[in-house]
Amino acid sequence: MYLVKIRNGDETTVIHGTKNNTLGDAKVSMTVSAASSFTFIIYPNNTGYFKLREWTTYIDVTQSGKYIFRGRVIAVDPKHNEDGTFYKEITCESAMAYLNDSILSWEKVDKKPADFFVELVNEHNKQVVDAEKQFKIAENSVTNNTNNIYCYVEDGISILEEMKNDLLQNEDLGGELSIDYREDGNYISWTRDKKVKGQQVIKLAKNLKTLSAKPDISKICSVLYPFGSTKEVPVDQKNDEKTNEVSTPRINISSVNNGKNYLEDPELIKAIGRASNTKTWENIKEPRNLLAKAQEYLKTMRNYRVAYELDAVDLQPLGLAVDSFECGNYYHVINPVINVDEWLRLVGVTINLNKPLESTLTVGDQVKRLVDYSMDNLQTERNLKRLAAEQQVLKHQNNMLIDENNQLKQTIIKLWNDILSKQESNDSSGSAWNWPFKPPATIRFDGAKLFGVNPGGEFRPNGFHDGLDFGSVNWPGSEVKAIHDGTVTLKGSMDGLGNYFVTNGDGFNIVYQEAFGSASDIRVNIGDHVKVGDVVGIRTTDHLHVGVTKHDFNAALGSAFSNNGTWLDPKKLIEDGLKNNMGTTQPVNGDWGPVIRNAAAKMKVNISDNDVNRIKALISNESGGNQTVTQQVWDKNMAAGTPAQGLLQYVPSTFNAYAVDGHRNIKSGFDQLLAFFNDSTWSSDIHIPGWSPNGSKRFDKIPA
Ligand SMILES: [Zn+2]
To answer: How far, in Å, is the centroid of ligand 1 from the Cα of 550?
Structure first.
């Protein structure tokens, strides 16, 4: 998924995308022709917490190896919560902003646009020195009729500002700036919109959550009063101070327009009635030129702009679309309910790294012909009313969309969960279970609090309790921790449960209820992925009720008082889970030593410090400590289609020959180490480079 790396000099640190390091509220916002931003929250347990420095720390965000952001940290804002915990809010800007680091002096420019662009980039590269901040040019293709730019560079202006002022905002040049982040540096391009079409269709009932279209007719007029420059003041009045104080009349069109100083568009008058406006062209001195300009302008009034806003689900992370939404590309948007079926350009895309499905998209204004809006024979007032009514209809239809949207959400959460649970089931450490509060020295539950039918619980229908209650006397503390990994699928309030939420993971639906006096005592939201031990809420009542079912939660509520197997005993699940806990299965700050010792102990092998060091050296040589790596060099294994994989670079068939039951995930370093110690001659088989196991298999499963 997403990986975030920071770089300080030669030191690189991964701060997001690993099991141990995760950022909060991480968002990349991209806009066409502007620098992107990347903002996030980092917590003290993150390896990178003390390594973020303003202006000097570089940062990369990749998605499956593809760069989506490269830039630098520009603000580090330390914060703390009321409970005394610390975190930092970080803001980063993308490489395009480096063009603000170089400054120009006054200059008259009279040359080919492409040459000027090259000069600006070269000047920038000269000034910034640091290769990280320099640009190579990928494409430089914008020009005009004369293939010439004539302008003045202001003293002290930054190169980015200069590019904006005299290239992008130049009426007959224009175009867009973009940066391509490549392995060997940043490539800048100055091009026109290439009208690239994205493959993902944005469609109602598929991935379109909301879409609204707002026609903007506020600037429309059907009668235009055009004015040109101010009239020449006669010579004899020039020195009269009073003349300078009063306003001077402007050139108008009456002398060339049958005595009328205005223009009318009959078609527009038919459509919207008589709506007058004025427009002044400072530079036009000839009435005839003014008339031509005004006629041209009034014609443009037959067009109006429509602004679209939309929220869509990116189906790419779910494997349901080939590509993700990309800023600047055009997408086919279909909503038959409101008659939208067109290619719209995304001029802004915000990606949420923590919730990869949620993209906020901004679409550029679309220009449409007013006549297409079939406004014939309507007076302005009626017409405006109608537009207002249409907006009402849009609103209503948007409400209808919300229903479909909720269904869509459920489907997507389910798909997402399937993907997550698949990833989890491949993980040998298993998804652990734990108590929701720090366990007291002696674990004790009164009968009525236990799951099932127990003395003391007779007051309930059938005497049955469908969960486990953690009373605040036997289980003190207020922070409620997740008892198992999962994704929050439901959250709300209901009679009997109070404020509650449900997580789903590994097929278990777990409800946390009755503990939260107010909705804000729940600290998670639908879609959040929680790990065992994460704080999910604050208990503000006398007990927390935890219920576990493998059935659909709402259906399971129908069996709240039936001991029919719908509900499971949370106490047993937690206690069994704790027993099966594999201990340290992941490297600690990159150190595989603790995992090696743990795997050896599980396989009943006594190892010396020297053995640990020999195995660490082997790991370092084989995979550099990367347990998910697949062989990168060509050899006989690769040729046979069975590249070596993982921490110790096992070929799959060899790994399977030594792996123990329940630990056959080749991409798990822990599972590989269990297999490693399952070789009767593991110690003498260590050779660097080129090790292979030669002994016999010791156990079928982890020995008791
Ligand atoms: Zn209960």
So the answer is: 18
For residues 462, 463, 464 and 470, what is the CA-based torsion angle, rounded to 10 degrees? 160
Distance 463 CA to ligand 1 centre (A): 12
Gap from CA of 579 to ligand 1 centroid (Å): 25
Kindly list the protein residues that place their beta carbon closer than 5 angstroms to ligand 1, a single-atom ion.
469, 545
380's tokens: 């302005």
Residues 88 and 174 sit within 8 Å (Cβ to Cβ): no
**d(CA 547, ligand 1 centre) in Å:** 8
Question: What pLDDT is stored for residue 207 in this prediction?
Answer: 72
Q: What is the mean pLDDT of residues 328-340?
A: 74
Where among 548, 565, 580 does a domain terminate?
580
Q: Is residue 673 over pLDDT 90?
A: yes
- How far is the centre of ligand 1, averaged over its atoms, from the C-alpha of 508 (Å)? 18
How sure is the predictor about 393, in pLDDT bands with cuts at 50, 70 and 90?
A: low
The answer to whether residue 347 is domain-embedded is yes
How many whole angstroms from 543 Cα to the centroid of ligand 1? Answer: 8
Q: Which residues contact 539 (CB under 8 A, 6 or more apart)?
A: 470, 472, 477, 478, 479, 480, 515, 516, 521
Query: Rounded to the nearest whole angstrom, what is the distance from the C-alpha of residue 538 to the centroid of ligand 1?
Result: 17
Query: Each residue of 18-71: pLDDT tens digit?
Result: 877 889 889 999 988 889 999 999 988 899 999 999 999 999 999 888 899 999
CA proximity to 326, closest of 202, 210, 495: 202
Checking if the pLDDT of 214 tops 70, the result is no
Interval between CA 544 and ligand 1 midpoint (Å): 7
Alpha carbon of 474 to ligand 1 centroid (Å)? 15
CB 284 within 8 Å of CB 229: yes
**pLDDT tens digits, 301-318:** 777 666 666 777 777 766
Judge whether 427 lies within some domain. Answer: no
My answer on whether 158 and 146 are in the same domain is yes
pTM: 0.47
Could you give the 3-state DSSP secondary structure of residue 633?
coil
Instruction: Tell whether 294 and 375 lie within a shared domain.
Output: no
Burial of 191 (0-12, 13-18, 19+ CB in 10 A): middle
Domain of 180, in residue numbers: 101-191
CA of 417 to the centre of ligand 1 (A): 27
Domain boundary among 300, 321, 339: 300
Do 257 and 387 lie in a common domain?
A: no
pLDDT above 90 covers a percentage of the chain that reads: 47
Domain tally for the chain? 6
